[in-house]
Amino acid sequence: MEPIFIIEHLEPELYEWCLIEYESISKIIGKNNLWFTNIKDKDKNKLKKLGKVFNKSIKSMQLINSCILDPDSPTLLSPNDKNKFDYFIFGGILGDYPPRKRTKAELTKFVKGSTRNIGKLQFSTDNAVYTVHKILTGTSFNKLKFKNKVEIKINEIESVILPYKYNLINGKPLISEKLIEYLKNKKDF
């Protein structure tokens, strides 16, 4: 059985940025392996085509053999963990810089299960899922290539720096074209 990747949505709204990352996650692992939890009724239809959607929080689901991905975990995820866990839980969080350790505050201390990290630096949610997926399919963390802080040119004068960790695929950061367009058209930061 393929593991289930669970995104516990922890933002007060389903912001466009979140939705873009969730679409990216669905493309990476497939909708049959993806659950969204803690979703408001008004947002369910936006996510149904991407994965299975639940109103309730992972905190009340009592899943057995679950693993929370938390940068504060003392244990690095390894390919062997695929056989230990059925569920991999991620915080659907638009990151802060510097990080506020929201995964630990909002998930880890409430959900029973083991924890693993994929390094101590903060990933975008879709890159965290991609990294875990790669590790679970046999690539150890130290074999993956990353870029910290990605600069997106908005126009000839302006750019925005995303202070997160991104996977490098053929030398380029894994970032959705849809997110780049969103950033270029965003009016304020």
Task: Describe, in plain words, how this protein is organized in 3D.
The chain is α/β, with parallel strands linked by helices and 189 residues long. It has one domain: SPOUT methyltransferase, trefoil knot domain (Alpha/beta knot), CATH 3.40.1280.10. It has helices at residues 16-29, 44-47, 102-108, 125-136, 177-185, and strands at 4-9, 34-37, 52-53, 66-69, 87-92, 114-116, 146-153, 159-169, 172-173. The strands form two sheets. A six-stranded parallel sheet has the order 3-2-1-5-4-6. Helix 1 (16-29) runs parallel beside helix 4.
**Rg for CA atoms:** 16 Å
- In CATH, the topology is named Alpha/beta knot
For the biggest sheet, the summary is:
6 strands, parallel
How does CATH name the architecture?
Answer: 3-Layer(aba) Sandwich
The poorly predicted ranges are none
**Distance, first to last CA:** 42 Å
SSE string, helices as H and strands as E: EHEHEEEHEHEEEH
The total count of strands amounts to 9
How many helical stretches? Answer: 5
What shape does the CA trace take?
Answer: globular
